[in-house]
């Protein structure tokens, strides 16, 4: 099945470069482009791409607000583009519903694989990002949200343990190794966690864990 992608970036060279790289993949097609956040929302509603490559800093409507609008409409998954992995807005974009982030200097292989990962419903969330999320919550002094704490109670002890490990950036294989169980068992636990907590993907699960204070800075 072909993965359809919308590229939203105000820099023409970035859009054209990514278009060439992605269209060269046998399973990926660039369905359209957008030059600002508002156009990204409109084009997403019109084209219904599987993945939106979303620049954060754009005119008219920034990538964070555009991501929030797209997520509200449940139209597509969003993969955020950023120049620096320390971009302060990455955290806000993930909270807005983005499934992960990708550096603009990513290789063709990393770009294509990132699109595939997000299209498959997984999260492109490296351990460095999860540590940054925890640090940001600590810096802000964020208090746990009561609804989040209450919903944690819906999980079994094992599911709660798996959620905490997701929030630490571990993959299914790494969680399976850590808990000494089969990877298929972990996949089942992850699916149940997402269903019970009414979450879309692992990124939302990670953010939820921080907000519930299931994971805290060391």
TrEMBL record:
SUPFAM superfamilies with a match to the protein in the record: C-terminal effector domain of the bipartite response regulators, CheY-like
GO biological process: phosphorelay signal transduction system; regulation of DNA-templated transcription
Keywords: DNA-binding, Phosphoprotein, Transcription, Transcription regulation
CDD domains: LuxR_C_like (cd06170), REC_NarL-like (cd17535)
Residues bearing the modification 4-aspartylphosphate: 55
Any GO molecular function: DNA binding
Residue ranges constituting the Response regulatory domain according to the UniProt record: 4-119
Positions of the HTH luxR-type domain: 148-213
Protein's UniProt keywords contain Transcription: yes
PANTHER family found in the cross-reference section: TRANSCRIPTIONAL REGULATORY PROTEIN NARL-RELATED, TWO-COMPONENT RESPONSE REGULATOR
Protein name, entry field: Response regulator transcription factor
Organism per entry: Streptomyces hainanensis
């Amino acid at each position: 099945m072909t993965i359809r992608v919308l590229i939203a970036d105000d820099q023409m060279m970035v859009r054209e470069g990514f278009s060439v790289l992605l269209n060269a993949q046998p399973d990926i097609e660039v369905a359209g482009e957008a030059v600002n956040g508002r156009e990204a929302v409109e084009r997403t509603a019109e084209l219904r791409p599987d993945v939106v490559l979303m620049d954060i800093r754009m005119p008219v409507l920034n990538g964070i607000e555009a991501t929030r609008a797209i997520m509200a409409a449940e139209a597509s998954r969003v993969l955020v583009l950023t120049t620096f992995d320390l971009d302060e807005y990455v955290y806000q974009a993930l909270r807005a519903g983005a499934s992960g982030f990708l550096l603009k200097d990513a290789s063709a292989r990393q770009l294509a694989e990132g699109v595939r990962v997000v299209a498959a419903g997984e999260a492109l969330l490296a351990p460095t990002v999860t540590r940054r999320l925890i640090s940001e919550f600590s810096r802000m002094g964020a208090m746990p949200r009561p609804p989040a704490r209450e919903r944690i109670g819906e999980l079994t002890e094992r599911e709660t343990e798996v959620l905490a490990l997701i929030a630490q950036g571990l993959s299914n294989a790494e969680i399976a190794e850590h808990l000494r169980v089969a990877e298929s068992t972990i996949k089942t636990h992850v699916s149940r966690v997402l269903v019970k907590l009414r979450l879309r993907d692992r990124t939302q699960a990670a953010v939820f864990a921080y907000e519930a204070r299931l994971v805290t800075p060391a």
